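Still learning. Any example?
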Amino acid sequence: MITQMEAPCWYAKYPGGEEHQNQVHYHTRAGAEQVAKNVHEEDPERTAEVGQWPGRCWEARCDGDCGEQYADDEYDGGIHFSSRTQAEQGLRDSGWRVLADGRDFCFDDVPEDCGPEVVPVHPDQAALWDGN
């Protein structure tokens, strides 16, 4: 399920990092600082800027049996998005199934009778599901 977080999250941004690395966010400052420290210990030339995101992000969790958060295993953090529409697109691009009823499923947990998927939103089109 794609949900909006209750509070702004934390990030560890790496200069020159790949785009997906800069979308890895953490629920706490301590989580972001620990990852930044670990990366710096592995490569002393890499220093991350730790900060708090200005708004509440959107995150996704599989509605299947695993209940896994959509995450980046290498950086041990959740992949967060700035909007529901961006989250839907990111999940679809990664091979997750995003359904019209608001559920989403990772690769391993897609039920056979899952129902219709969300139609991709074009940049000039309003979102098709507003979470209500």
About this structure: The chain is about 20% helix and 20% strand. The longest strand covers residues 10-13.
